[in-house]
Amino acid sequence: MPEIKTSFTRQRKYMFFLLSIYVLGWGFTSYQSIFLGLILGTALSLFNLWLIVRKTTQFGEAVANGKKVRSLGTMTRMASAALAIIITLEYPEAFHLISVVLGLMTSYIVIMIDFFLQSFHLRRKREER
């Protein structure tokens, strides 16, 4: 399982980088509700990413030890997305709904980009040999 932790560390750095850009956008532009929505969605997306890594690690350990596995936390991740939408609908003047939804998808986009970057990097290493 060290690969998943290494990937998570890389992806977490990307997510924090995006969050810092969103905070700068919130502070220095007139699109505050859009950037606040991106911040909310991306923060919960980062939480969901951490949760799936944690549950996957627990799943791997349980399988290796021959124990039963309950769940990978799908309901928890759905509940956090529902929480983001509820907050957005409660405070529509502060949060932009589409930005929150895009923020919630950020971790999946980051995972795909990271996968392609790592695949490209590994391919270049193999060609150099």
Give a description of the structure:
- The protein has 5 helices and no strands.
- Helix content is 84%, strand content 0%.
- It has 129 residues and is mainly alpha-helical.
- The protein has one domain (2-128).
- It is flat.
- It has helices at 2-28, 32-64, 74-90, 97-104, 106-128.
- The chain starts with a helix and ends with a helix.
- The model has no long low-confidence stretch (mean pLDDT 93).
Topology overview:
Layout: H1 2-28, H2 32-64, H3 74-90, H4 97-104, H5 106-128
Largest sheet: none
Helix content: over 70%
The number of helical segments is: 5
Tally of DSSP β-strands:
0
**What is the string of helix and strand elements?**
HHHHH
The average pLDDT score comes to: 93
Oligomer: single chain
* Overall 3D form: flat
Count of discrete domains: 1
Quick summary:
The chain crosses the membrane at residues 12-28, 34-53, 74-91, 97-117. The protein has 129 residues and is mainly alpha-helical.
Search tags:
single chain; 129 residues; mainly alpha; ATP_synth_I; membrane; transmembrane
